[in-house]
Design a protein that fits this description.
alpha+beta, elongated, 35% strand, single chain, 5-stranded antiparallel β-sheet, 5 strands
């Protein structure tokens, strides 16, 4: 788990609202996963210049609760590519609404596929990126 947020801007930033809370008063991880998928999709579609739906998700960890009112930043970067696919790592960082204290709340990886207008996989127009490298 990282000690500090990434040095690149978040793909998405949102305020955690009461409507997204679970019965225990913390933000529901389903909401976090949905926002993480949106962040991954934003980065992937900009990278490939096409629609890029999520086809797989894995490696999730939820390391700190997100409170109602927290500012939540979703940092996403492409960490691998294939012929038509992109692997996007997403880190979630929360900040107390009334302070500067931050902590990593979650992390996970998504695989997305570049899609053509015919709804078939579209080859990427870039050199494949090896796992372990990154494009922020």
């Amino acid at each position: 788990m990282a000690e500090f947020p990434p040095d690149y801007p978040p793909a998405i930033r949102a305020t955690a609202m009461a409507c997204d809370a679970n019965p225990y008063g913390k933000i529901f991880v389903g909401w976090l996963m949905g926002q993480m998928a949106l962040a991954a999709g934003s980065v992937a579609s900009r990278f490939c210049g096409a629609r890029a739906p999520v086809v797989a998700a894995d490696g999730f960890s939820f390391t700190a609760p997100v409170e109602i009112g927290d500012e939540v930043s979703f940092h996403a970067e492409i960490v691998g590519t294939g012929r038509t696919s992109m692997t996007v790592a997403v880190q979630v960082w929360r900040r107390d609404r009334h302070g500067e204290g931050t902590s990593q709340a979650a992390a996970g990886r998504f695989t997305l596929v570049s899609m053509g207008e015919d709804d078939r996989p579209l080859p990427l127009k870039v050199v494949p990126l090896q796992e372990g490298s990154s494009l922020g």
